[in-house]
């Protein structure tokens, strides 16, 4: 099952959101939330945990913002595009920050490389949806 298949069944969809962009943003944000949480946990298990303090913090912040974004985007009853735009902007910023931090550790920690990729995907999905909204 895909995100698109569930959101297209909604009896009262928000006309202002394109399904393809919306589905990708929901999927990317949900995946990023899980990936960031896993990366933070992996960072805590590293011998150099003190050197990863900022990475752990940005992982947690990004995970929380992404989880909230996915949840809010999945609500299609009514329309609150102002909130959606602000949330997408915040999600994009959290993902960019987390990706930058994780990329600085990517050569040493595979979990950081994977996390940075998930963050960049979500950052792009948020940008694309913002562009589609206008």
Automatic annotation (TrEMBL):
Gene3D superfamilies, A to Z: 1.20.1270.360
Superkingdom field: Bacteria
Source organism of this protein record: Dietzia maris
Stated name of the protein: Four-helix bundle copper-binding protein
Pfam (any one): Csp
């Amino acid at each position: 099952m895909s995100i698109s298949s569930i959101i297209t069944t909604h009896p009262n969809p928000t006309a202002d959101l394109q399904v393809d962009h919306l589905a990708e943003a929901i999927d990317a944000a949900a995946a990023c939330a899980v990936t960031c949480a896993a990366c933070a946990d992996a960072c805590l298990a590293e011998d150099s945990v003190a050197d990863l303090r900022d990475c752990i913090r940005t992982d947690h912040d990004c995970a929380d913002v992404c989880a909230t974004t996915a949840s809010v985007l999945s609500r299609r009853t009514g329309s609150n595009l102002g909130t959606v735009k602000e949330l997408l902007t915040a999600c994009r910023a959290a993902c960019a920050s987390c990706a930058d931090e994780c990329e600085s550790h990517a050569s040493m920690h595979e979990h950081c490389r994977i996390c940075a990729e998930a963050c960049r995907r979500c950052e792009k999905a948020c940008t694309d949806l913002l562009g589609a909204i206008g």
